[in-house]
Structures are given as C-alpha cells and as structure tokens.
C-alpha cells in the first residue's frame, strides 16, 4: 500500500471515530433516585446524586405548578433508573409542572448555579463538538408538546439559553440536535469554557396535562454537516490517489 493510500485509510478511520466523539453529559447510568411533589403550595422537591455524569454530580428539581384535582393525591415525579439508563419526568392526570436537571459539579447549593462547577478552566466543548444532542421519548398517547430550555454558563458567569418545543407521538425515541451556532441561542456564553449546564422540562404553568417524558443520552456531538465536509475531503484524497495510480 502506497503512502498516500495509507493516509486516506488513516483519515477514514479517524472520521469514523469522530462520528462518535463528543462529551457525555449524562447517560443516567448512575445516581438512581425518585422524587415526588404533590402540592402547589409553593416550592418543589430536590435530589442530588453523585456518579459518572459530567462534573460527578447532578441536581434535579421537580415542582407541581397546576392541579385540577385535589392536592396531596396527584402530582409530578422525577426519577433516574440506572438499570435502563433513563431519566423520567411524569405527571398524573390533570397536573402540570416542571423539572430541572443541573450539572454544575459536586456542591451542596441546590438551586444556585456554580459557574465554575465543571472546573476552574471550564470544559472546552468546541474542541470536540459542535452541537448538543438529546435523546427523548414522549410516552403520552396524545400529541402534547413540552418545552425544553437548555442553559449554558461559562466560567465568567455569562449565560446562553436555547428553547424549543418537543412534540412526540408516543413511545418513540427522538433525537434533538442543537448546534452551538444556531441562531436560536440567546446570550453570550463561551462554549470553550463551559462551567455549568441546566436542562428544564416545562409542560406549562397555566394548563394541565397527562405527560410522561423519558430522557436517555444527553451529550455533545459533531454536527452531521461537519462530518459530511470531512468525508468530502477524504473523497478528494481518494481521487488524487486514483489519478496517480
């Protein structure tokens, strides 16, 4: 095998590896828990779990916002099942609420964002990735949307937020990819110095729904477009090799 062909093969192998590159934020393989909020009298319920997630810790908050039925019997629930590696947020019938998942390192200040919680120098997401990726399943049998708010803080305290409505048909995992350069971002966080992350699941504060949401991997990935461009570069190298053969 000539030298140029060896380079092409090596580059192809590197591209295949890059397709899976990125930073795993949480695959919910550790830190099992279950919390429930049954009242709308103010405030919700917190859990802090340690494990293999980014920063070694996650804080989860669940709050019931609206109840058509009597408080004390129905509510909202958040849990992590480390057997099937899922985060689940559910509401009983005629309830509505929110869940927050915070990754800001191992600290005791629930609800307060530690903007250097992922390290004094932050995490350089842009070095290996160009997009966030969520894998989620909407369990309810009807088409009810929920809002996902993704918050990113850098180590200086600057924040960026991206919001989108996720709609599921029930029982099917969907992949949502959010490019770092998407125009929907609001704010000016530096993605080369990420110090904290938060994902909010919000099913509304004025209405009541029967909702069941399951999250699997939360991670960063290269955008498909960047992988395609790299692939075109490899095709070009192959063409050069054939002309010289």
Count of helices?
2
Runs with pLDDT <50, length 5+?
1-19, 226-245
Secondary-structure element sequence? Answer: HEEEEEEEEEEEEEEH
Number of domains: 2
What is the first-to-last residue Cα distance? 11 Å
Percent in helix: 10-25%
Largest sheet: 7 strands, antiparallel
CATH architecture name of the largest domain: Sandwich
Radius of gyration, in Å, reads 21 Å
Tell me the structural class.
alpha+beta
Which geometry do the CA atoms define? globular
CATH class call of the largest domain: Mainly Beta
| Fold-level CATH name of the largest domain | Jelly Rolls
Give the strand content: 35-45%
Describe this structure in words.
The structure is a single chain. By secondary structure, the chain is α+β, with helices and mostly antiparallel strands. It is globular. It has two domains: 1-21 and 223-245; 27-221, Jelly Rolls (Sandwich). A hairpin with a 4-residue loop joins strand 5 and strand 6. The protein has helices at 3-18, 224-244; strands at 24-26, 33-37, 45-50, 57-67, 76-81, 86-91, 95-103, 131-138, 146-154, 159-166, 173-179, 186-187, 194-202, 212-221. The chain starts with a helix and ends with a helix. Helix 1 (3-18) runs antiparallel to helix 2. It has two helices and 14 strands; from the N terminus they run H-E-E-E-E-E-E-E-E-E-E-E-E-E-E-H. The model is unreliable at 1-19 and 226-245 (pLDDT under 50). The strands form two sheets. Strands 1, 2, 5, 6, 8, 11 and 14 form a seven-stranded antiparallel β-sheet that branches.
